[in-house]
Amino acid sequence: MKKLFQTAAASIIALTAATSHAEDIKPAVVFDMGGKFDKSFNEGVYNGVEKFSKETGIKYREFEVTNPSQREQAIRKMAQRGADPIVGVGFAQGPAIEKVAKEYPDIRFTIIDSVVDLPNVQSIEFKEHEGSFLVGVLATMASKSKKVGFIGGMDIPLIRKFACGFAQGAKYANSSAEVFSNMTGTTPSAWNDPSKGSELAKSQFDKGADVIFAAAGGTGIGVYQAAKDEGKYAIGVDSNQNHLQPGTMLTSMTKGVDVAAYNAFKSAMDGTWKPGKHALGLAENGVDWALDDNNKSLITDAMKAKVKEAREGIIAGSISVHDYKTDNSCPAL
Amino acid sequence: MDDLFLLLLSTLDSTLRVSAPLVLCAMAGIFSERSGIIDISLEGKLLAAAFAAAAVAAVSGSAFVGLGAAIVTSVLMALLHGFACITHRGNQVVSGLAINILASGLTVTLGGAWFHKGGQTPTLSGDARFSPISLPGSDFLAEIPFLGTIYVELISGHNLLVYIAFLAVPITWWVLYKTRFGLRLRAVGENPQAVDTAGISVTFLRYRSVIIAGILCGIAGAYLSTGQNAAFGKEMSAGQGYIALAAMIFGKWKPVPGLLACMLFGFLDAMAVRLQGVALPGIGEIPVQFMQALPYVLTVILLAGFIGKAIAPKAIGRPYVKER
C-alpha cells in the first residue's frame, strides 16, 4: 500500500514537472523609444523574441513606447492581461518595471540594461566597457590620423561607460591616440536625431578624426551616413550594423541583447528562469565585435591579432577595463 | 591662427546646413501669418514632406520626383489647414496642432505599412539624394588665400536645397514689399475689411498664402530627408518647425530679421556641437547641458531686453467674417 502511494506520488511529481517543463507562457515585450526597428538595441531584442516565437510557435505581445509616460502604462497593461514573463527593454524602463513588479509579485519580469532589485525581477546588464574597449583598439589601428571619435545618444552614465571603454581601448592600441567624445543631447529625443548625429560626426571629422564610434540609437544612422559621405569609418553599436553602409562601417560593437531576450522567454518556458542580477561580458559572450562579409576587407591580420590579445587579456584579468559607472569618472577621457 | 580660422569656417558651414530648413519654414510662416493665419502646423508639414520626399525618392530613384511629392504633400496639408480655418473659420491653433499630430502619426503608420521598417524609409543613395554641388571656379579660386578659402569651404559644396533656402529670403522680401500681391497679403493680415471693401477676395488671398507656405515647407522637408540625411526616420523634424516659428516671431514677422534669427539659432547649435567637452581658457570645460540650453536662454534675454516688442499682424488668428 505504502509503495503504491509512493509511486503514485512520484508519478504526480513527474507529471507536474512535465507540465511545468513545457509551461504555457504568455510572453510580452515592451520596446523603448527608438522603436523595434532602430537597427540597434531594440531591434536586437526584436530579433531575439522573433526567433523564440518562430521556434516555439508561441506568440508574444508587444508594445512600442513612443513617449516616456507610456512605459509604466504599457508594462502594467501587459501585467493586467496576464502576460508572463514581461521583458522591459532599456535602462529607462527600470523605474516602471520596479513599480509594476511590486504590484504583481507573481509575474516574472526581465529588465535589460538596468538593475531592479526585486525577487520577481531578472536584471540583465552588459559589460559594454569591455566590448567598447575592443572596438576602440580596432578604431585606433584603422585610423591614419590616430584621432578617433565617440558620439553618444543621451548623456547618461551608461553611454559614458561606452565612451570610457572605447577611449581606454583606443589608448591601449596606441598611447598617443586622441579621443573626441560628444553627446547628442540630454533628453530621450537624443536617440532619434540623425541630423544632429551627422553634424556631430562632421565636426569630429573637421577636428581630424577618421573613425567614429556611435552609441546613439537612431541618431547613429546619421553618423554612419556622414562617414559614408566623407569617406571615413564608423563603428556601429548593439546589433551588427555593418550592413548599413558596407565599406565604411569598420565594425560594430555587438551586445547580446537578442540572446538575452531569447533566453528570458526560453528559460521562463523551461522553468529555469531565475531572478537576480546577471552581468554579461566578454567571458560570457555577452559583448563582442562584429566581423562579416561587409567589413572583412577593412580588418587586417594585425588588427585581428591585437584585438585577440586584448580580449584574452580582459578575460584573464591581466587588462582591467575601468567601468565608468563604478565611480562616475573616466581616467582615459 | 589658421586652425582657428578653419574652425570658424567649419562652424559657419555647419550653421548654413542646420539653418537651411529653419529659414524655409520661417519664410513659410511669414507668408501664412502676414496674411492672418497662425501657422503652428509648420512642424507637421515639415515632417510629412520629409516622409513624402524620402518615400517617393526611394521608390522612383529620383530626388527631384521626391521633392515634387514633398511639395504636393505639404500643400495638401496647408489646404487642409486653410479649409478648416479660412472656409470654416475654425480655430487656427487647434487646426495647426491637429495637423502636427496627424503628420506625426500618419508618417510612421504609412512608413510601416509600405516599407516594413517600423516607419523608416530605405536608405537613399546616388540620384535619389541631393548631393553637394561644387560651385563653378572652386578649383582655381581655392588658390586665393582667405577669400578663396571662404568661397570653397563655406559657400561652395552645399546641396541645391540649401541655396534655394537662402534665395527664398530675398524672394520673400521682394514678393511681400515690392509686388501688388504682397501689399494685399500684408493688408489682409492687418485689416481684412479694408481689403474686402476694395473688392478683393480675402478668402482667395489667404488660400494663396497658405499654399505658398506649403510649398516652402515642402522644400524644407525634402531637404531634411533627402539632402541633409539619406532616409526618413520617425519624428526626424525634431521640433525644427517650432524653432522656425520662434525665429519668425523673434524676427518680427519680417524676412531678413527672420533669416538672421534662424542663422543665430543654427550658429548656436553648431557652436554647441563644437564646444562640447572643449576646455575654454579661463573658464574650463563647459557642461553640455549649458550649451544646449543656450539658444533658449539667449532667445529669452534678447526678446526681453534687446529686440523690443514683436508686434503681430493685427488680424492674426481671427477668421474673417463678411459683414452682412
From TrEMBL, chain A:
According to the entry, every stretch annotated as the ABC transporter substrate-binding protein PnrA-like domain falls at 28-321
Q: Where in the cell is it found?
A: Cell membrane
Identify the stretch annotated as signal peptide in this record.
Answer: 1-22
List the GO terms this entry assigns under cellular component, sorted alphabetically: plasma membrane
Keyword set, alphabetical order: Cell membrane, Lipoprotein, Membrane, Signal
Name the principal localization, coarsely classed.
membrane
Q: Which positions are tagged coiled coil?
A: none
SUPFAM superfamilies, A to Z: Periplasmic binding protein-like I
Q: How does it sit in the membrane?
A: Lipid-anchor
Q: Member of which family?
A: Belongs to the BMP lipoprotein family.
Q: By what name is this protein known?
A: Membrane protein
Which classification does the entry list for the species? Bacteria, Pseudomonadati, Pseudomonadota, Alphaproteobacteria, Rhodospirillales
